[in-house]
Structures are given as C-alpha cells and as structure tokens.
C-alpha cells in the first residue's frame, strides 16, 4: 500500500500518476471483494456540508459503515457556524472528536470562497480533510468517473476520446468536476476535449497545470466551442454544467438562455461519435436541459454505474488516508 496516511484530499493536482492509479486499483479490489479489510474499524468521520447532496453524502456514509466506521452528517446551518462561530474554532474542536472530516462547502456567487474555507480547515484541523466538492474541485467524483471509464474500456481508456461538455442548466453550478478531470487527465495521460460556449472558460490555474503536465505525460487536453464538432469520433460524451467565472451574473444568465439549444446532448451528437460510445453524467440532471431523455435513459448511458463507483473509490480514499 502506498503511504497516503494523514494526507488531505483536496484536489488532484496534488497527487502523482502512481498515486491516482493505485487508488483506482485499490477501489477495484474493494469492489470485487478481494479486499474485505475493515480499514475504518472504530473510526469516526464527520460530513460537514453547507450544500445539498445525494450521491456524495450517501456513498460516504454507507462506505464508512461497510468498512467498520461511522460517518455522521452535519448541516452547517445546524451548527454554531450559523451563529458566526469561526471556521477556525470549528476545525479545532472537530479534530478533537473525529478521525477525518469530509467537507462540501461553496457559494457560486463568491467563486473561490469555498476553497478558502477548505484551506482554513486543512490548516487548523490536524486530521485528514476530504473535499466532497467546493467551487474549484470535485476529486472524489472524478476518480470515480475515471474508474468507470477504465471498467468500460480497460487499460485503453487513456487513448479514448473523452468529450467533456458544458450543458445547459438554469442553476449555476461548481467548476469542480471539469477542473478535477483536467488535472487527473493531464496527470494520467488521457485524451480529453473540453467543449463549452464562448465565455465559459475554465480557471487559468488548471489550464496552465494541464499544459505543463501534459508535456511529460503525453496527455492531449483540448478546448472547443462547438459541441457538434467536438463529438466527432468521441468514445465518451460527459455532460456537466458550470458557472462562467469571468462574467457578471446577469450577463452569464442571459448567455445561458441564448445558447441552451446548442448545448443539450442528443442522439445527433452520438451519430457523430464512435460506435459503442457511452454517455456519462455526474448527476443530478433535468432531462431536456443538458441532455435528452433518449440519451440518458438509452443503451449508451452508464450514469448509474458511474454513480455506484463513487462508493468504491471513496472507500479506497478513506481507507488510504486513515
């Protein structure tokens, strides 16, 4: 086992190719039943969330229980944080009770504030902090996604063309998934095209990391402003909405409505993709907005396999850190 004990798990830029591949192999052994070790026996984990969650919350709680631990959920509005207790005091107290803390905290009207909160917790809580989605990264989701790609395509998954596309949604969502996928894709040597309308560019910090890292790993990270064009020869089409961080809200919301019909994944996009191409989506989704029912409920969809793998990869992450 690689020594990841007591590490924080905030973003995927902080982990090597060897570490990411080892975590996925570890998850596969846990999923297959080859490794039934109760790695979290008598461990207590906290889930500190200020944003709604379905898959992340349930998979962490079930995963901890399956490995002998206990993960308790805390809504920040129920804690003294709602009465202006500082995050520093919260961190210092929680480290006295818990063996690890899993955190989902962000506000898309203040891009970067979620990461500031995450950094405060890592600085003042002397226990592993796991990022369960902030405004910049969603590392657990993305490792589960790549594990799913590996299951579907085998070791050749790195050669397959992944089209990660912005999809229309009324709600402004985190950039966590595209950023983490860009980081992991560059590190692992994957082939990914990020497609999005003009103005919805990703954070330059992640683009620069991908450029530099790809030089040594051979990754192919590209960008496109036309989903139909990007879909040519795709093996995976993955839809996710995110906020445009370089625009004022009023402008961004207006542009969303103007481009919505060109940014809904349909069977027309899969006609341009390779035979056997699959559809991925981290969910939640409203059918008819970012994707048609025909696609997400069709034979090409592997969204529920993808959702299940959140459980297995997060068990591997928790076990490795503790």
Compact summary:
The chain is α/β, with parallel strands linked by helices. It has helices at about 15-30, 55-65, 85-95, 115-125, 140-155, 175-190, 205-215, 225-230, 250-260, 265-270, 295, 305-320; strands at about 45-50, 70-75, 100-105, 130, 160-165, 190-195, 220-225, 235-240, 280.
Strand-helix topology:
Blueprint: H1 17-32, E1 44-49, H2 55-66, E2 70-75, H3 87-97, E3 100-104, H4 113-124, E4 129-131, H5 139-153, E5 161-166, H6 176-188, E6 191-195, H7 204-217, E7 220-224, H8 227-230, E8 236-240, H9 249-259, H10 267-272, E9 278-281, H11 293-296, H12 303-321
Parallel strand pairs: 1-2, 1-3, 3-4, 5-6, 5-8, 6-7, 8-9
Helix pairs in contact: 1-5, 1-12, 2-12, 3-4, 5-6, 5-12, 6-7
Main features:
322 residues; alpha/beta; Rossmann fold; 12 helices
Oligomer: single chain
- Give the number of domains: 2
- Name of the CATH homologous superfamily of the largest domain: Aspartate/ornithine carbamoyltransferase
Structural class determined from secondary elements: alpha/beta
CATH-defined architecture of the largest domain = 3-Layer(aba) Sandwich
Largest sheet: 5 strands, parallel
User: In which range does the helix fraction lie?
Assistant: 40-55%
Helix tally? Answer: 12
**What string, H for helix and E for strand, traces the elements in order?**
HEHEHEHEHEHEHEHEHHEHH
Rg result: 19 Å
């Amino acid at each position: 086992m690689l020594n990841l004990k007591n590490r924080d798990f905030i973003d995927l830029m902080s982990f090597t190719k060897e570490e990411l591949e080892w975590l996925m192999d570890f998850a596969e052994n846990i999923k297959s039943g080859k490794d039934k070790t109760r790695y979290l026996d008598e461990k207590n984990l906290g889930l500190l969330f200020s944003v709604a969650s379905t898959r992340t919350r349930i998979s962490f709680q079930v995963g901890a229980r399956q490995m002998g631990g206990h993960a308790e959920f805390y809504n920040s509005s129920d804690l003294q944080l709602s009465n202006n207790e500082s995050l520093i005091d919260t961190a210092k107290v929680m480290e006295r009770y818990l063996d690890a803390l899993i955190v989902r905290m962000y506000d898309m009207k203040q891009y970067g504030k979620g990461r500031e909160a995450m950094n405060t917790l890592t600085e003042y809580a002397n226990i592993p902090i796991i990022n369960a989605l902030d405004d910049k990264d969603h590392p657990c989701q993305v490792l589960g996604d790549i594990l799913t790609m590996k299951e579907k395509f085998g070791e050749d998954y790195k050669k397959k063309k992944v089209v990660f596309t912005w999809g229309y949604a009324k709600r402004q969502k985190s950039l966590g998934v595209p950023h983490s996928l860009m980081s992991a894709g560059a590190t692992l040597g994957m082939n990914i095209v990020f497609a999005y309308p003009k103005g919805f560019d990703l954070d330059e910090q992640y683009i620069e990391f991908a450029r530099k890292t790809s030089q040594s790993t051979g990754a192919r990270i590209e960008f496109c402003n036309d989903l139909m064009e990007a879909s040519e020869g795709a093996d995976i089409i993955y839809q996710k909405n995110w906020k445009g961080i370089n625009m004022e809200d009023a402008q961004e919301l207006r542009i969303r409505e103007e481009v919505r019909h060109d940014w809904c994944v349909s069977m027309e996009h899969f006609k341009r993709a390779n035979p056997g191409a699959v559809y991925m989506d981290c969910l939640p989704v409203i059918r008819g907005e970012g994707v048609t029912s025909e696609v997400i409920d069709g034979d090409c969809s592997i969204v529920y396999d993808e959702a299940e793998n959140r459980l297995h990869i997060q068990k591997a992450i928790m076990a490795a850190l503790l």
